[in-house]
Batch of 4 targets.
Target 1
Amino acid sequence: MKRFGVSACAALALLACVNMAQASQLVVEVTGLRSTEGSVIVEVFGSRAGFPRQPSYTQSVAIQGGMARAEFKDLGPSDYVAIAWHDENGNGKIDRRFGAESFGYSNQPVGTRADWEEARITLGLDVFLLRIDLGGFDD
């Protein structure tokens, strides 16, 4: 078994601290849900290349107290786009016919599709709280 000296352990600990200091956290709070049925899907896109079809991160979160909250930890400081939608029927896909499931992009009014530049948010080292109001009513 190979042992690390004190200096090697200190270097590894310092490296871990540096990596943690460079991590960003995105918290997405979704309100204005028109029912408590189903769940809320939050997709985060880490690059323009996969937007809007291939999210880098996805969470399905339960609705509690009329809202849903997704937390994405250890993201790098960079540009991202978030999309949240209410999967009321639990089929795992957004239903877009008239009166269907509501959705919202970061920086956009509910139900408005956007391009990367319009919806882009920039994460730094602090926690970024993004609120998306889907414009429904609270139960």
Target 2
Amino acid sequence: MNPHAINRLDRALAKICLSCPVCRHARKTQAGLAFRLVKNAENGLCPFCRAYERVYGRKPHEPPANAAADAP
């Protein structure tokens, strides 16, 4: 795990990623333009995707481990 401690800002940014229509579509369909966009842009461009990975321990384009846990 990242030595960076998860704080309130990380949780707030991750919550935005949960409600992002592009990220939600990528997690749901696992294919298409939205999936490729999120997969390629998550680490370098999007602070919300980076926070999502720190908080939930998985990439923003990966399907949810528990569907109830990712409900906005």
Target 3
Amino acid sequence: MTRPVSWEANMAYKITDECVSCGTCEPECPADAISEGEDIYVIDPAKCTDCGTCVEVCPVDAIVEG
């Protein structure tokens, strides 16, 4: 899935294609910025507070700094 560059540039974190859709990150996000996407989970850049909690809980290291 290709997203406009401006969308990704505003993100503190993003979920890569390495995501296995386990859902571990979603309930851990204190800002409710993570939701299930079409193929993988996604982070809403307008809600993300750059706390890093999602990075800490991802079992496959699929969440990286945007």
Target 4
Amino acid sequence: MLGAQAAGTSSRFHRFLQGLRQIEPWHGTKRLLKWLLEIYRRPMSLEERLRALGARIGQDVQLQPFTIDERYARLLTIEDRAQVGKGTTIYLSDGVANTISEAPDPPPIRFGPVRICKGAVIGRDSIILAGVTIGEYALIGAGSLVTRDVPAGMLAVGCPARVVGTVEEWVRTRYSEKAIREDRRSIYVYMPNWRRRRAIGMTPEEQDLYYEENFPRYGY
């Protein structure tokens, strides 16, 4: 009787082992490892990299490749819906006086947090110096050198950048029907803004194709 019980127990244990082989007890672990490898292989976006370095990056931002000293990234804040154009350089420190001085006790190196507030737009190839705040929905013209704060809603252009009016006035004047009609040197192609393009899933390739399709209307 005891032998029969032992044989029955052994048989059940054998079936249990077979069942484990069928359900693949490591299947979940393998899926987890595969997922982790996919994350590792996927390149980090610019927003992810800046956050990893300590910068405060808001939501729904558009960041094209720009330059900062990554050692001090924690001094950078870019708020929701802000945009930074390609080729922009943001300085978070100023050590030129320390570098040029020959004194035994040279001037200190200055560090200055940079804040790009909600909805502000930085035109491409601009330079923003340490300690500057760009106000909400302000606009910095392309190629500008920003040495001081720019108030909310204002347009600043030049080298050094100077406030020349409000963004609202500039848009209304430059892009009025009359101004567009009289401008013979430019091509105007109507396109949803970047937030709308992102929402509808328009790719950069589709955007470029749309432009190309419109150029023949102007002889290009």
